[in-house]
Design brief:
By secondary structure, the protein is mostly helical. Helices cover 60% and strands 5% of the residues. It has helices spanning 16-22, 25-28, 32-48, 54-72, 85-97, 110-146, 166-190, 207-220, 235-240, 243-269, 297-321, 335-357, 363-369, 377-386, 391-407, 417-423, 429-432, 438-443; strands spanning 151-156, 159-165, 192-193, 228-229, 277-278, 360-361. It binds arginine (ARG). Arginine binds next to helix 6.
Length: 450
Amino acid sequence: MAKKLWGGRFSKKTDPLVEEFTKSIQYDYKLAEYDLIGSIIHVKILKKTGYLTSDEANKLSDGLDYICDTVKKKKFKFDRKCEDIHTAIQNALQKKVGDLALKLHTARSRNDQVVFATKMYCNMAIGYLKIDILRLAKTIIEVANDNAQIIIPGFTHMQHAQPVYLNDYLSAYKEMLVRDVDRLGYVSDNIKICMGAGALAGTPISAEEYKLKAEEFIKEIKMGEACNVQAVTNSLDAVSDRDFVIEIISALSILAMHLSRLAEDFIIWSTKEFDFIEIDEAFCTGSSLMPQKKNADVLELVRGYAGRLYGNLVSVLTMMKGLPLTYNRDMQLDKEPLFNSLEIVSSELKVLTGLIKTLKFNKEKIAEHLKDESLYATDLVYYLVDEGIAFKNAHTIIGKLIKYSLDNEILIKDMPENLLKKFSDKIVKKEFVKLFDPLVSVKSKKSIKR
Ligand code: ARG
């Protein structure tokens, strides 16, 4: 087993089952770059405060820079025998610079390190994710604009309701995605990066020193825009807060819910029964038994993964709810749900962007659906209202007319004028039938600011 960051008070070796059970290196290796940033800052602080000589600080910095470089080039060998990423980096540094590395942990605790690294990771991940979301939103707008003339049946309760522009339908998802970007922005703004909490009670180094050096270096590596640095105001809270993880995975759950609804709409639209859209073959899969099948598995997985996202959120919320202050090892379990949620959403955004770019809309089939007269029932009510009939009465008249049409299997359009007049003498057939037109219907809606 690899060297640990603790052990002096133990006379027995750790049971291998315990080693295996408690380690987190298999997933927290993803924090490597950010843990190294924290260590580089820490060296600067130790030098400024006299814990390290200039020479020692330079040697440690060079060693950390070297490791950081190998991590970035994906050449760093993560020692899976280590307890966690903090241990792996400490051991690698010791290999590189010798026992001088043992001074790095002066006035430092992994309880503080892990929060720093995870917060940095979250800020970076949110930055990338926002780009992916905006790319999907842009694709949706492009597809909507390319098909701007198409009108589709709109639904409530999954029943034909009123005609709407496809553009508006798709843009509804763009609106959700823009809110998702904003929401992740608030989450990111709310992450306050700080150093100096120690294990829980603070360290002998001044709060200003930590803030100054962290701010300076984070600016130097051009992460200043993405990261809010502040001094530790409560060290107990600093090491035991995981709100930021919960906030991110909750924002991601909302995003995943939006993507799932979009997926569900497209699944329905791609069925034989609807046939509104054709999903490109490159984004479909087949069946091992039924040769005719072209399935929307991508969309089904997007829908299915929403459940995984919610599970991740509930898992961290539940893990946190009973923990006394301050750090408890339970908190190590925040990382898999966090990384998993970020990774799932990131691949969903990418695959959906590709799928939507190549989507084809089946204008003829959609036009068939628009022949359903019930879609225009509300417009017929407005016609009578314009003729001076009270809305409630007009609603009843058109309701009866629709029922008559269904019961007698006759289209309203095909009814003679004298029959129509039995429902209301205000009906002039020539004017009335003009309303069975999707374009007339959507154009009559003036309340939307486009
Ligand atoms: N791997 C740990 C985590 O992610 C690091 C902190 C460990 N601290 C401790 N006191 N055992 O939470």
